[in-house]
Amino acid sequence: MFIAGAALQWLRDELQVIQDAADSEAMALAVPDTGGVYFVPAFVGLGAPYWDAYARGSIFGITRGTNRNHLVRAALESMAYQTRSVVECMTRDSGIRPEALRVDGGAARNSFLCQFQADILGLPVERPATAESTALGAAYLAGLATGFWRDEEELAHQFKVERRFEPAIASSRREELYGGWQRAVERAKGWAR
C-alpha cells in the first residue's frame, strides 16, 4: 500500500480537519458510520494489489449531511479496506488463511481502527504490548546473532498481546461495506490517464 496513515496526515496538514492523528479515534466514534462515504487515498496511485499508477485520491458518497467526522472515519476505514485487499491477495496466492492479524506502529494505538480492521477482515486483530515491533524485532535479531536468545521458539514466547479485537459485525454487513470500497476503488482507477 502506498498511502495509509498519510491520509490522516493529509486531513491534518492540508485540510486541517484534525489537529492530531490521535484525534481521529474520537472523531470516528462521534458518528455511527461514514454515512456512505468512501475515501480512496490514492494520492500517488494505488499499490498492491491494484497496481494502478493512474489512480487518484477520491472521496465518494458525500451528501449535504457529511461532516468532518465522516471524512475522518472514512480515512481510517480505508486503511482497513486496503489491508483486507492485500490479505485476500496473500491468502489466494499462498493458500493459507491467517488466524489473526498482528498490528503495530502508531495506527495500532487507535482502538477504533483495530476493531474495524477485525470487523472487515473477519479475523481477530492482536495489538502487542510493545507498539513499535520493528525496533523490537531488530533487537531480537541482534540477540539471536549474539546468542542472547537460543532460537526463534524462545523469541515466540516473548510476544505479549495488550488487546485482542474480535470481529463484531455480521458477515453480510462486512461484505456490503467491502463491496462499497471495491466500487470506490474501481472509480478511482485510471483517473489520471
Unreliable parts = none
> Which shape, going by the Cα principal axes?
globular
Work out the radius of gyration: 18 Å
User: Roughly what fraction of the amino acids lie in strands?
Assistant: 5-15%
Would you kindly provide a written description of the structure presented here, covering whatever features stand out?
Helix 3 packs across helix 4 (111-121). This protein has helices at 6-13, 24-29, 68-94, 111-121, 133-146, 152-156, 171-188, and strands spanning 38-40, 58-60, 101-102, 125-128, 161-165. It contains seven helices and five strands. The model has no long low-confidence stretch (mean pLDDT 93). It is mainly alpha-helical. The longest helix is centred in the middle third of the chain and has 27 residues, at 68-94. The chain starts with 5 loop residues before the first helix and ends in a 5-residue tail after the last helix. Strand 3 (101-102), helix 4 and strand 4 form a beta-alpha-beta unit. It has a three-stranded mixed beta sheet. It is globular and about 60 Å long.
